[in-house]
Amino acid sequence: MLKGTVGCMRLCFAISEVVRDLYDGLSASVNTRSCTTNSFSYRVGVFQGDPLSVAIFNSVASLLCDSINVPANRHHGYPFSTCNEKNRYSAVADDAVLVGNTVSFCQSLCQQTDEFLSWSKIEAKVPKCRAMAYHSRPSGEFYDPEIKLAEEVVPFVERH
Predict the structure, then answer these.
(1) Angle 9-15-17 (CA atoms, 0-180°, nearest 5)?
(2) Is 28:39 a contact under the CB 8 Å cutoff?
(3) Which of 47, 153, 59 has the alpha carbon at shortest distance from 106?
(4) How far apart are CA 119 and CA 113, in angstroms?
């Protein structure tokens, strides 16, 4: 993921190699008083608290937003009466909101997101996601759109 992200951002080769070397090819061994294990590799992703983690995360999140904000999607967002723009997504930290004017377009956004997550080797945490649709006429009711992300149905936002 890091290699692809820094490549998409067109960072110079030297910087991308330094960033990649901080996270790729990590290995460890376990030392006790009586023995030391052989070295083994592990993948931990970006270290929480690492000063670069925020920049790397923002870079990846920006690529997701760019992949959704393509010209083919511009007319499908939810139109707000106060402006001419149509909202298709909103992102804060590691949370994203996908918005569409039809259930089929929302499913399309989920498919695009799923393709991006697959490319970036990020796993969707579908049980933490929520979906909701709204019939504006005639009933004005909320309902479960039964959209899928990563081949799982996104849970409906339940009313309490």
Answers:
(1) 100
(2) yes
(3) 153
(4) 10
pLDDT tens-digit readout, 128-152:
888 888 877 777 788 899 999 999 9
Q: Which residue pairs from 58-62 have beta carbons closer than 8 angstroms and sit at least 24 positions apart in sequence?
A: 59/5, 59/6, 59/9, 60/1, 60/5, 60/120, 60/122, 61/91, 61/94, 61/96
- Write out pLDDT tens, residues 103-123: 888 898 889 889 888 887 788
Q: pLDDT higher for 125 or 83?
A: 125
Q: Give mean pLDDT, residues 48-76.
A: 75
27 forms beta bridges with 41
d(CA 88, CA 24): 34
Q: Strand runs (DSSP E) across 2-160, as ranges?
A: 27-28, 40-41, 78-79, 86-87, 89-92, 95-98, 133-134, 142-143, 148-149, 152-153
pTM for this predicted structure:
0.63
Token digits of residue 57: 């995360």
What are the helix (H) ranges across 25-102?
A: 51-68
